[in-house]
Amino acid sequence: MTVWNPETYLKYAGIRFRPALDLIERIPLGHCERVFDLGCGTGHLTQALQERWPEARVTGVDSSAEMLSHARAEFPKLDWLQADILQWHADEPADLLFSNATFQWVSGHEQLFPSLLAQLRAGGSLAIQMPRHTDDPGHVLMLETAMDPRWRSRLEPHTKRLVVHAPEEYWRWLSPHAARLDIWETIYQHELEGENPIVEFFRGTQLRPYIQALPEDEAKQFVNAYAEKIARAYPKESNGKTLFPFRRIFIIAER
Ligand SMILES: C[S@@+](CC[C@H](N)C(=O)[O-])C[C@H]1O[C@@H](n2cnc3c(N)ncnc32)[C@H](O)[C@@H]1O
Q1: CB of 188 closer than 6 A to ligand 1?
Q2: Would 124 disulfide with which of 100, 120, 244, 247, CB 3.0-4.6 Å?
Q3: Which long-range contacts (CB under 8 A, 24 or more apart) does 169-172 make?
Q4: Percentage above 70 pLDDT, the chain
Q5: How far is CA 179 from the centre of its chain?
Q6: Which of 40, 62, 207, when mutated, tests ligand 1's pocket best, judged by the most ligand atoms within 8 Å of its CB?
């Protein structure tokens, strides 16, 4: 199981939180009493939800003890729950089920998303953002590097295929159950600074299981091999910055 490191994750907080803040902007809810943040991680977005709906009771749900302990320490007034979101059920009908950058780690969206929608009170919203970057070099080259014969046998068991479907699939699965649907995609053009910034970005998420699975010296070789490919795929621009296009899907389903 992946051990998350909140500090590494937060190094690119601006990029990671931007889509969540864009999603919150579009949620069509006025008054809200019960809100859950599924896969809340470090809790910063749970706090953003509490600020947006100060009258609500907001609970952050996550399976990672490391992430939750960071969230608890930083935002002690909020409510936190350690649980697997696949097993979890709302303890009362919710006004908002929110999730940023989490459901790509979990399969079975066709059944799962309608079942989440059913846990809302009438008029409530399910709001989900996931990266949809599996065709991008940053993702493809990571898999390619993991399949290098030097470490393939040890990394293959840790290769979790991210499962994010096309927007129209979500529309088909949710439209029979939703009063209204708002689904869109955005490709952010992130401008990154420094050496190997894309490798550093993925160090906080998808590289973690691989780095953890190898002894330290081999983990370094693996990251260096990935970094060489990334430097060719995303060369620095004339101003020294690295352009990092990143596609994300947004879903708001109202019950
Ligand atoms: C990329 S982080 C996103 C955290 C936060 N939502 C954010 O946007 O900053 C993904 C989070 O999902 C959590 N997660 C992944 N699978 C989960 C599951 N099955 N149940 C609960 N949490 C899960 C991880 O522990 C991690 O904190």
Answers
A1: no
A2: 120
A3: 169/110, 170/109, 170/113, 170/249, 170/251
A4: 99
A5: 26
A6: 62
- Show the domains of the chain with their CATH numbers: 6-254 (3.40.50.150)
pLDDT band at 2 (very low <50, low <70, confident <90, very high): low
C-alpha of residue 221 to centroid of ligand 1, in Å: 27
Tokens of 204: 């906080």
- Mutual orientation of helices 167-174 and 109-117 as an angle, nearest 10°? 50
Q: Sort strands 94-100 and 34-38 into parallel, antiparallel or unpaired.
A: parallel
| Average model confidence (pLDDT) across the chain | 95
Q: Cα(44)–Cα(188) distance, rounded to whole angstroms? A: 21
How many angstroms separate the alpha carbon of residue 25 from the centre of ligand 1? 21
pTM above 0.85, yes or no: yes
